[in-house]
Amino acid sequence: MPKRIVILSGAGLSAESGLGTFRDKDGLWTKYDLAEVATPEGFAANPALVHGFYNARRANCLDARPNAAHAALAALQRQAEVTLVTQNVDDLLERAGARDVIHMHGQLNRALCAACGHRWDAPREMAPDDPCPACARPATRPDIVWFGEIPYHMAMIEAALAAAELFVSIGTSGEVYPAAGFVQEARAAGIPTLELNLEPSSGSALFTDARYGPATEIVPAWVAELGA
């Protein structure tokens, strides 16, 4: 078993828990105008619409349960030095027992003050006039990285990739940067790379190995092969 593993996960990891994917034919971005609900400009123009969108996603997340793939990754983390990086904004990895998950796109269960930068645990429903607990200004927004914003924890992720012995991508489209570029960084460093996905991603040719199928089947099977 490799000593240091970096695992990037995307929407496909949580799809079987009932959380929607984004870029497939029935994904969320086919049903919503991302410029309206997932950009700073959209929030400035219609904060009520944006809060309504994320309130619905938060309720969906709170009612969801971790699946076998989440549980397998949490088990692997107990057996090896595993850095879990996720593009997902749900907390299903943590609820499955994973620790220190790096949420590069933020979290549904966290709130952010656009005025002072204070962060806190989000209630089930948020509204545009909610006051910030720190500065009291009505500038509350979801603590989500929107299009045009810089993903969180990039320096930490880069350091983990530089020290890794294996890079694994699970349930990602391979279309959203900078995460889509992690496999290229791993290849440049001579690190083996593995794609676990429902079907080949747009960057599948960059991986040295791949397994395809539902995450709840292929992720536990791969973890079992490692002996975790």
From TrEMBL:
Family matches, as InterPro entries: DHS-like_NAD/FAD-binding_dom, NAD-dep_sirtuin_deacylases, Sirtuin, Sirtuin_cat_small_dom_sf, Sirtuin_class_III, Ssirtuin_cat_dom
GO cellular component: cytoplasm
Cofactor note: Binds 1 zinc ion per subunit.
Catalytic activity line of the entry: N(6)-acetyl-L-lysyl-[protein] + NAD(+) + H2O = 2''-O-acetyl-ADP-D-ribose + nicotinamide + L-lysyl-[protein]; N(6)-succinyl-L-lysyl-[protein] + NAD(+) + H2O = 2''-O-succinyl-ADP-D-ribose + nicotinamide + L-lysyl-[protein]
Presence of the UniProt keyword NAD in the record: yes
Domain (Deacetylase sirtuin-type) ranges: 1-228
Top-level enzyme category: transferase
PROSITE patterns per record: SIRTUIN
Keywords: Cytoplasm, Hydrolase, Metal-binding, NAD, Transferase, Zinc
Active-site residues (renumbered): 105
Binding-site list for substrate: 54, 57
A Pfam family the protein falls into: SIR2
Chain sites annotated for binding Zn(2+): 113, 116, 132, 135
Its EC number(s): 2.3.1.286
Primary residence: cytoplasm
Binding, NAD(+): 10-29, 87-90, 171-173, 197-199, 215
Required cofactor(s): Zn(2+)
Subcellular location: Cytoplasm
Top-level lineage group: Bacteria
Job description of the protein: NAD-dependent lysine deacetylase and desuccinylase that specifically removes acetyl and succinyl groups on target proteins. Modulates the activities of several proteins which are inactive in their acylated form.
Family per similarity comment: Belongs to the sirtuin family. Class III subfamily.
Written domain comment of the UniProt record: 2 residues (Tyr-54 and Arg-57) present in a large hydrophobic pocket are probably involved in substrate specificity. They are important for desuccinylation activity, but dispensable for deacetylation activity.
HAMAP family xref list: Sirtuin_ClassIII
Protein known as: NAD-dependent protein deacylase
Species whose genome carries this gene: Dinoroseobacter shibae (strain DSM 16493 / NCIMB 14021 / DFL 12)
